[in-house]
Amino acid sequence: MNKRIIVEILKIGIPTIIGILLTNLNSIFDMIFLNSLNNKEILGIISPYQAFASSIGYLIGHGGGLIYKDNKSFNYGNKLIRLSFIINIFISIIGIIYSFKLNNEFQIYYLIIIIASIFSVLIIIINNLLRFNKIVYRSMFILLIGLLTNIVFDYLLINNIGIIGNAISYLISQFIIFILMYIVYRFKCRNDNNYEFSYLLIIKYGLSSFIYQLLTSLSIFMIIYYSKLNDSIVLFNLCNRSYMLLLGIAYGISQATMPLINKENNKSIIINSLIIIYSLLIIEIPLFIFSNNIVYYFTNLDYSRDFILFLISIYFISPTILLNINLQVNKKLFKANLLAILRSGGIFIILLVIIKNISISRLISDILVLGVGICLISKDIKNNC
Length: 385
Hints:
Layout: H1 3-35, H2 47-71, H3 74-99, H4 104-132, H5 137-161, H6 163-188, H7 199-229, H8 233-257, H9 266-280, H10 284-289, H11 291-299, H12 305-329, H13 333-355, H14 358-384
Helix pairs in contact: 1-5, 1-8, 1-9, 2-3, 2-4, 2-7, 3-4, 4-6, 5-6, 7-8, 7-13, 8-9, 8-12, 9-12, 12-13, 12-14, 13-14
């Protein structure tokens, strides 16, 4: 255990984790307010689209971010933001075309969320730029402002105009976060370093993140499909949102290592990051203890086996996230892309089709993917020793 490295990781990782948790808490509070309307169908409408739109954010944010890490050019970062905006306008058009298949109330909800998702993706880009400049505390506070804004407007609007109020609240919060983050980026990252803008390099370095998000959207769609068959969409919405919320720990620590990794400290970074991740996962203990109460509160169901299996899966997928980002930063692109395909749903989707049980498929796939990740990175670690 290296105390210096642990301190460096925690300095970036803790505010990053809090920022990710705040982002995911937005969706948790939305679920609480929407459940109060007894409108279950809306919970499954927007998640696949948001995951797909986010894939562009991660492609440009992580791919361009790895290049930005070396040049720290303000103009380069601005170009990434503009590129993301243009691409998401085209994606939004596809979403708008799909929205015509929905009934009137859902159509309005969907259209507002599509607009909000443009800002959500831009937030991913700017947040990455700020993280590479180690400006993480301001990001954390801005995300907290966004969460509080969303909660306040949900409370004020949902009771008056229903699910459309939820969409408007989300739009307002995402717009505020985007504006505040861009202001911080504009005034705190004014480096005019030279840079070479390459679309090919952005795709090359960001492909594993893009693949992960794209297949994640397919996984979410499959979860929605199979949970509808079993009339358990609310239960698995809770399981999946809790799963993503807790993965914020692994993502936060893993993303914190991105500005710190080099060939000399790679093994030490991985070991110390794992120590931090598993130490922080102690917060799962009360979730196990009160799992029945949690499931009943959110779903009115009195069995928690699926929720518990999702919680157990966290212990296997968390280190895989760290290994995947490590491979990506070290530009082991084939291995990073392969692991991204497997951990985002490559194995999970196959198992789900065969077993037809969401929680068991999730657990088995996360165990198998961790084994693959260890095999992929073990040779690189030995070579650095």
